[in-house]
Amino acid sequence: MPRTAEIARQTKETDIKVKIDLDGKGINNIDTGIGFFDHMLTALSKHSGIDMDITCKGDLKVDAHHSVEDVGIVLGQAFNQAIGDKKGIRRYGSASIPMDEALGTASLDISGRAYLVFNCDFAGDMCGEMDTQLFEEFFRSFAFNAGITLHIACPYGANDHHKAEAMFKALARALREATEIDPRFEGEIVSTKGAL
Ligand SMILES: [Mn+2]
Questions:
Q1: Ligand 1 mean position to 91 CA, how many Å?
Q2: Mean of pLDDT over the chain
Q3: What predicted TM-score, i.e. pTM, was given to this entire model?
Q4: DSSP letters of the chain?
């Protein structure tokens, strides 16, 4: 069964198309109109191995908020659809990724229970044209729509670009691990409840 999904979502604020393949090679085509966000999503695709086609036409004349939040929603929905019944997956994933002086960490559980713990202090207000407050918004909308418990943090670092990028790369590697099929549990659901 291919683990793929394609979702289009249009509102008065954004027009978004997302297509993903969980078993890809990190091939991506991303255009959200926000350069720094494209840079982060490209890293997310590349280091997770999840192929991602993402386009967003949003109301950037307001600011980047609606675009970033809504891309998180649609990408999360696509992830939830593609992961399907969760049979045989490793379920848990975690990664600590350094980027020069900054460390990004991500621990996640593809549990069907949505939760976000976010812990990062940014030094400035913006990364390019992206408000640094929006990283938490993205991680929340993605985690809640994907149905994952996500703890993501930057315990230390100085440069905001490095902090954000280290967290996105940590999320990527944690997703890669958690979505992989574990040969020991092939066809099974890794839960004592028998359901996720
Ligand atoms: Mn960079």
A1: 29
A2: 97
A3: 0.97
A4: ---EEEEEEE-SSEEEEEEEETTS-S-EEEE-S-HHHHHHHHHHHHHHT-EEEEEEEE-TTT-SHHHHHHHHHHHHHHHHHHHTT-TTB--EEEEEEEETTEEEEEEEE--S--EEEEE---SSSEETTEETTHHHHHHHHHHHHHT-EEEEEEEE-S-HHHHHHHHHHHHHHHHHHHHSB-GGGTTS--STTS--
- Going from the Cα of 165 to the center of ligand 1, the distance in angstroms, rounded, reads 6
| Closest C-alpha among 156, 153, 155, 154 to residue 101 | 156
Residue 156 resides in a domain: yes
What range defines the domain where residue 167 resides? 4-185
pLDDT tens per residue across span 128-169: 999 999 999 999 999 999 999 999 999 999 999 999 999 999
pLDDT digits (tens, 9 = 90+) for 12-55: 999 999 999 999 999 999 999 999 999 999 999 999 999 999 99
Q: How far is the CA of 56 from the centre of ligand 1 (A)?
A: 21
Cα 130 to ligand 1 centre (Å): 13
In a domain, residue 62? The reply is: yes
pLDDT for position 190? 86
Is residue 196 included in any domain, yes or no? no
